[in-house]
Design a protein that fits this description.
Family: Belongs to the mandelate racemase/muconate lactonizing enzyme family. GalD subfamily.
Catalytic activity: D-mannonate = 2-dehydro-3-deoxy-D-gluconate + H2O
Low-confidence stretches: none
Number of domains: 2
CATH class of the largest domain: Alpha Beta
Shape: globular
CATH architecture of the largest domain: Alpha-Beta Barrel
Largest sheet: 10 strands, mixed
InterPro entries: D-mannonate_dehydratase-like (IPR034589), DgoD-like (IPR034593), Enolase-like_C_sf (IPR036849), Enolase-like_N (IPR029017), Enolase_C-like (IPR029065), MAND (IPR034587), Mandel_Rmase/mucon_lact_enz_CS (IPR018110), Mandelate_racemase_C (IPR013342)
Mean pLDDT: 97
Radius of gyration: 20 Å
CATH topology of the largest domain: TIM Barrel
Bound molecules: D-mannonic acid, magnesium ion
Helix content: 25-40%
Order of helices and strands: EEEHHHHEHEEHEHEHEHEHEHEHEEHEE
Number of strands: 16
Distance between the termini: 46 Å
Protein name: D-mannonate dehydratase
Pathway: Carbohydrate metabolism; pentose and glucuronate interconversion
Strand content: 15-25%
């Protein structure tokens, strides 16, 4: 069996997505997601100019050897561009292998470990009252877990508060939007939000919050301690995680569950966090972690330390990633939760898929492979459109973490 052809498809049904499609001499094809928000063309070029030429003629069944070839053979290892490109090829090869075996990907991985994949949705609002109402709307939609993000008094913009309600897309301009941040205003505000939420809805639903890399470790410890009475499912990206040691300081001050990893791209980024039990959930998604092949290694290491998965699932990860993630989530023994930001109808038309939402869970469906394809005719309707993620500065102008 051999790979006959492979192509990169860049499309922008409301936001940019990069997809790899691999065709074989057996007439079976596979697709993989390579989307890296704000750097899509870098990954597309890495694939088109450097990886795909080396792929043609190889046996698609040799997934591990191909992964090692592109990881070790590149000499320059790791990083979001490299690993997103490898991830897309890997996802497509696992898609092909499952199709050749006439089975859903979760069966190839080891079979289902659960009947449904618990997901969390994103409720956001300009202020506390609007956010509280939005959480209620998500409860009404059947969500059992809801992330709450609110505008912050005194700040013009806050992370996670989108334009409109169902689709949050932060890449909002052809050059980076400059936003202002103030930690004091944030820390004075967030406990009030969760006090209102628990007061209104009680403790029946999981509540989550994303700090989005905005605090120093001791500030994260302080916030965690302030939020403990509200029983959050997790506090995400409490501090930038380049220094994995920083989470030791947070752990000394709070028992709030910690989630991190959507910006990681190999096991090396989280090895110390996991082995020292400095986190409770690892969020590195299949599109970022070099695909199914490497993500299995991360999940297995995490399982040794009772760290659970909680994969990133924002709108800037395509339905292909969501499909592959749901198969992985269905199998992985140390599953925690899956992020689920709904895509727009235009995006869903470009990426027909088998997964569906019911009663707070996503179900991957029983289609063979990972259950997601790309409609090339639909994709061709939406040419690439430059879009950057914002940047953040402190009020004195100092560059900060967006
Ligand atoms: C966020 C993302 O979903 C999340 O947890 O951190 O929305 C993140 O800001 C975007 O994926 C960046 O492109
Ligand atoms: Mg996040």
């Amino acid at each position: 069996m051999r790979i006959d052809a492979a192509k990169v498809i860049v499309t922008c049904p409301g936001r940019n997505f990069v997809t790899v499609k691999i065709m074989t001499d057996q007439g079976v094809h596979g697709v993989g997601d390579a989307t890296l928000n704000g750097r899509e063309l870098s990954v597309a070029s890495y694939l088109q100019d450097h990886l795909l030429p080396c792929l043609i003629g190889r046996d698609p069944r040799r997934i591990e050897d191909i992964w090692q070839y592109f990881y070790r053979g590149a000499y320059w290892r790791r990083g979001p561009v490299t690993m997103s490109a490898i991830a897309a090829i890997d996802m497509a090869l696992w898609d092909i292998k499952a199709k050749m075996g006439n089975m859903p990907l979760y069966d190839l991985l080891g079979g289902k470990s659960r009947e449904g994949v618990l997901v969390y949705g994103h409720a956001n609002g300009a202020d506390i009252e609007e956010t509280v109402d939005e959480v209620g709307r998500y409860i009404g939609l059947g969500y059992r877990a809801i992330r709450a993000q609110s505008g912050i008094p005194g700040l013009a913009a806050a992370y996670g508060v989108g334009r409109g309600k169902d689709y949050y897309e932060p890449a909002d301009a052809a050059l980076p939007t400059e936003t202002l941040w103030d930690t004091t205003k944030y820390l004075n505000f967030v406990p009030k939000l969760f006090d209102r939420l628990r007061d209104r809805y009680g403790f029946e639903h999981h509540l989550l919050h994303d700090v989005h890399h905005r605090l120093r470790p001791i500030e994260a410890g302080r916030l965690g301690k302030m939020l403990e009475p509200y029983g959050l499912f997790w506090l995400e990206d409490a501090t930038p995680a380049e220094n994995q040691e920083a989470f030791r300081l947070i752990r000394q001050h709070t028992t709030i569950p910690l989630a991190v990893g959507e910006v990681f791209n190999t096991v090396w980024d989280c090895k110390d966090l996991i082995q020292n039990q400095l986190i409770d959930y690892i969020r590195t998604p299949v599109v970022r972690a070099g695909g199914i092949t490497h993500l299995r290694r991360i999940a297995d290491l995490a399982a040794l330390y009772q760290v659970q998965t909680g994969f990133h699932g924002a709108t800037d990860l395509s339905p292909v990633t969501m499909g592959a993630a749901l198969h992985f989530d269905s199998w992985v023994p140390n599953f925690g939760i899956q992020e689920y930001m709904r895509h727009t109808p235009e995006t869903d038309a470009v990426f027909p898929h088998a997964y569906h939402f019911a009663d707070g869970y996503l179900h991957p469906g029983d289609a063979i492979g990972h259950g997601v394809d790309i409609n090339e005719a639909e994709a061709a309707k939406y040419p690439y459109k430059p879009a950057y993620l914002p940047v953040a500065r402190l009020e004195d102008g100092t560059m900060f973490n967006w």
